Sequence to fold (418 residues):
Amino acid sequence: MKVIHGVDEPLRRITVSLSRYFKGIDCIERMKNSVVCRLTKKENRVLVLATYMQLLLLMIQLLIYSAIGTSMVVHGVVLAAAIVVMLFCIPIWIRYFMLKAGMIYAMALMVVMVQFLLFAENRRFFVEIMFPFFCMCIPSFINISAVNDDEIHIDILRKMSWAIFVTGEIYLGSIFLYGMKDADYSMSYSYYMLLPSLIFTYLFNKEKKVVYLLVSIASFISMFMIGSRGASLIWVLFFVVSFLFSDRKWILKFPVVLGGGLLAFHYGTILVFAAKFLGKIGFESRTLLLLLRGEILTHDSGRNLLRMKAFQAIKANPFTGNGIGSDFRLLGTYTHNLFLDLFMHYGVVFGVLIVIAFMTIISVSFYKSENKMFTFLMFCFGFLPLMVSGTYLVEAALWIYLGYCCRKLPVRINFESL
Fold:
């Protein structure tokens, strides 16, 4: 057997191969982490704060619009929200991942341009859709996908949730004291309040502070009184799951479960009392009325008709789809379902591929997450609402959630080195 410098040739080759292999693994790990690890804590805070600031500004927008009723003010606040996200984040984008941001914008712009050219009948709807998509949704995705510190993420969410909660309660109090424009029911309000209700429930189970429980319940009651049942049901789901899977001993959980069961047994009496109380102060809760009539899950608010029209539109163009904005053209509004939106816009083939990609990203993020309850919180905040309301083209919450999921993927690309 040939010997080189006292080492057997086969052993030397194995050693060299293993050295190259592990060197390659090390390079891959450096590629996976190089961009995000270089972000300072301050830069992480800026990205997270700028992203969630728009939600606070939207709540303020709702308050101003209900009080003044001036559409120019409403659009001005939305514009301010987009500018806040862009101005604070662009220097960080340029410093760390300008190519990544550019590629994302280029791909999104290419899809929009193809849709614009192929579906001329939808063009009149592009202006109101594309502004929030390019100025709020995509920046939110880029920001959260770059942040890698969950502690900073949660800390900023705690502070922003307090601000949103206080603003929301001012809005609710103004309704009772002064009466406000179109304030008897607001779907937007309930989904803005969903974030603080989820965050404070999460913090209650994590830090065991009663104040978080009280604020979470107060947020839920506010949503329940003037908001949509969808947001209320999502909170109930998260509250139950987070409590049952918390690290509390079952001997402490049992009294709460028993108490909840007793309340559920007498919920009819409680609802009647609540309805009479609200009626005395001149207030009517849509969600409460649905509960009293036993229609909280069956009342569709016209959604079945929208679904039937959407299915007809999909059936008419199963391969090419009807294009972005076709739901507004054919239905007069969005479909209130993320999957129907995708099938209607891009057809069955591309729609299925996008749904598979979504489900893969979501599944992997749950599997890889070290904080599964926070990941479930983000799922309830960003994904579940899109199954019953809203559209992916204007709801930044979905893109925040997708950005968070992409951080958990096992393979990341070092765009900075390209």
Remarks:
- Strands lie at 3-4, 7-8.
